[in-house]
Amino acid sequence: MLTFVGLGLYDERSITIEGREAIRAADRVFAEFYTSKLAGATVDDVEAYHDVDIEVRDRAGVEQDPEPILDAAAEGDVVFLTAGDTMISTTHVDLRLRADERDIDTRIVHGTTAEAAAASLTGLQNYRFGKATTLPFPYAHGADGVPGSVLDTIADNRERGLHTLVYLDIKVGTGPKGPDPDHEEYMTGEYAAELLADDLDAVGVVVARAGSPDPIVAADSLDALAERSFGEPLHLLVIPGDLHVIERDALSELAGAPASVLPDPV
User: Fold this and answer.
1) Closest of 228, 141, 148 to residue 192, by C-alpha
2) In 10 A of CB 250, how many CB atoms?
3) Which domain does 21 fall in, by range?
4) Does 36 reside within a domain?
5) Quick check: is 28 in a domain?
6) 93-134, pLDDT tens digit by residue?
7) Are the C-beta atoms of 55 and 29 separated by less than 8 Å?
8) Which end of the chain is more exposed for a tag (fewer CB within 10 A), N or C?
9) What is d(CA 61, CA 43) in angstroms, rounded to the nearest whole number?
10) 0.85 exceeded by the pTM?
11) Do residues 41 and 10 make contact, with C-beta atoms less than 8 angstroms apart?
């Protein structure tokens, strides 16, 4: 049996009770933290809290060499841990399909997602979000500025009146000069706002450390957000579309948006 368990958003306590029980029942526990991470906990913290040894795999160890995970799951009960929800990344779907090809039973224990937290914390209605996008570091896509695909996604959503959730790049094990096992880099909300401000005249909403005891939610023009500092990772950025009156009030009251930058509600 291979059970995929989402750890939630912030620290070792963000997991569901069902997820914790799955870890306790497992013969072996694997994890990856290159697609996302728990900003409020180390691997040692998670191991201590759950009284378990965790075998952390890098990208190659999951995508190119999954056999040790699958072999263990063919012989016993294995848990595979990720931050957030466990099936958000195609990497994890691929691993589940490989297990299915070997007739290994699989199970999913969901965790809270950044997407759900973004809607909850900003007060923007979840069904009014359009297609999400990821903003990469310029060196990661080989050019200066913002990829056209990111700008096209935001423009298409805004044309339809929809909000855009912008995931911010994470680089673990790879840096500007290529593979680097010691490299960890997390794009900040202020840097993302700075990149987008060159191409967009828009309001942005930074969400920092969702799931923590003290998350930050700040709405303003992209230029203004670029001048601020939002502290430790992880960060998200939302580009709102048309605003319902309650959404406008939420950005004003909950995210501190100046009235002058907010469009009239529709």
Assistant:
1) 228
2) 21
3) 2-109
4) yes
5) yes
6) 999 999 999 999 999 999 998 899 999 999 999 999 999 999
7) yes
8) C
9) 17
10) yes
11) yes
